Amino acid sequence: MALAAALDLLIEAGPQAVTLKAVAARIGRTHANLLHHFGSASGLQKSLAQYLTDRVCGSIAEAVLKSRTGEGSVRDIVDLTFDAFDKQGAGALSSWMLLTGNEDALDPIVDAIHALVDELGEGGHEDREMHQDTLTLVLMALGDALIGERLADSLELPRNSARDLAEIQLQQALDRWKAEHGA
């Protein structure tokens, strides 16, 4: 309950609103109760990062597998990734944790992305390419969440330009994968 409430606060009001006191008030518990469970505000942030990542990574893994078989599209993967950082607050949370010196709270996000890529990979040279493609996609999604709208406006580009570029890059990666696997 606490993590669902923390995620709602993150999406509604931003990372600065995700405090032990605010989450406790939202779920009808005491500050002391949450302090006992999470240990600190940074513990809450770390748990929230894990909670958010767990929710998103499963959906992305499914979308990747569907795209490989032709059941899904590369755009589905791009949209899930970009939405995780933008609409679901992972970009704002990541930035907040870095700015407040809580960098180790990013570990669940980084570890989950690495585990997902390893799960989808097949070892060897292909994994290196998948790691590079993942890095590019995640950095594009993070950057877009933080300044994408303002930058696109400034450059007089459509708002979805970064998503479109990510889709092209990921489609090329999928085409490479299919060619190598005779799919």
Task: Label the overall shape.
Answer: globular
Unreliable runs: none
Measured by DSSP, the beta-strand proportion falls in under 5%
User: What's the total number of strands?
Assistant: 0
Order of helices and strands: HHHHHHHHH
How large, in whole angstroms, is the Cα Rg?
Answer: 18 Å
* Assembly type: single chain
Largest sheet report: none
Distance between the termini: 43 Å
Helix content: over 70%
Mean pLDDT: 86
Number of helices: 9
Structural class: mainly alpha
Protein name: TetR/AcrR family transcriptional regulator
DNA-binding region: 19-38
InterPro entries: Homeodomain-like_sf, HTH_TetR
Keywords: DNA-binding
TL;DR of this structure?
With 183 residues, the chain is mainly alpha-helical.
Describe this structure in words.
The structure is a single chain. It contains nine helices and no strands. It is about 80% helix and about 0% strand. The model has no long low-confidence stretch (mean pLDDT about 85). It has about 180 residues and is mostly helical. Helix 4 runs antiparallel to helix 5 (about 75-85), helix 5 packs across helix 8 and helix 7 (about 105-120) packs across helix 8 (about 125-155).
